[in-house]
Design a protein that fits this description.
Helix content is 44%, strand content 28%. The protein has helices at 62-93, 100-129, and strands at residues 2-11, 15-21, 33-34, 39-46, 55-60, 133-138. The two termini are 21 Å apart.
Length: 140
């Protein structure tokens, strides 16, 4: 589990909204909503019975963390490579041997951009599907 601390800015029935400072370990895993480069907000299950303005320790499951990294980096890389090879292959079939590397590169970039857009569209649904964080304890 990855542990970070933050301040509770909202309390729901069994969850809290926690405002946290972005650390280098956070990168852009997708577990939170980003307010700006230094701040982020995360919805966490409230096991600490935290109240408004409490400082809490938030744990994020490592499995969820690596899953988000895979979605953000591995899938677009795979589609980039697929696009490069597909574009080069199609250019060769069309007799554009001289331009096949350029066509492959352009096709790969287009595939990667489309993949990022699909990931971006599915992000709200993915975030609601799993509980990503847990407020485990109140910190003094």
């Amino acid at each position: 589990m990855e542990n970070e601390t933050g301040i509770v800015i909202g309390v729901n029935e069994d969850t809290v909204t926690v405002k946290m400072k972005r650390s280098s370990a956070c990168s852009r895993c997708g577990a939170c909503a980003v307010a700006n480069e230094q701040e982020m907000y995360i919805e966490a299950q409230n096991l600490a019975n935290a109240k408004l303005n409490d400082r809490v320790k938030v744990s994020i499951d490592t499995k969820v963390f690596f899953q988000a990294l895979g979605i953000l980096y591995c899938i677009p890389l795979i589609t980039l490579l697929l696009g490069i090879f597909t574009g080069a292959f199609v250019a060769d079939l069309a007799g554009l041997y001289r331009y096949s590397p350029l066509v492959g590169f352009a096709t790969g970039i287009i595939f990667a951009i489309i993949t990022y857009q699909i990931i971006k569209l599915g992000e709200p649904k993915r975030q609601k599907a799993t509980t990503k964080a847990i407020a485990t304890e109140i910190v003094a």
